[in-house]
Automatic annotation (TrEMBL):
InterPro entries: Phage_HK97_gp6-like (IPR006450). This is Head-tail connector protein.
Amino acid sequence: MGISQITKQNIKDYIRMDYDDDDSDLDIIMLAVKAYIKGYTGLTDEDMNTKDDLSIVYMVLCNELYSQRQYTVDNNKVNVVVKTILDMHSVNLL
């Protein structure tokens, strides 16, 4: 499943958003995560949709931004799986 096939309902289910409140913040989160993945990897929208493993990265990062809605850092650790998958698909390495 490519990122373009992931619906808002898929994300709501994944992050366990079980209420029908205004979810406009979820639209912002989904756009931000997609932009982050594109910026990190250098992939185009079309390229991202051919990498099925980026779907889990997309959902995990949406969950992180949804559940951690504050600007504080408790530790400097990065999710190893997310970083590994993003690194595998990076084409903009310097």
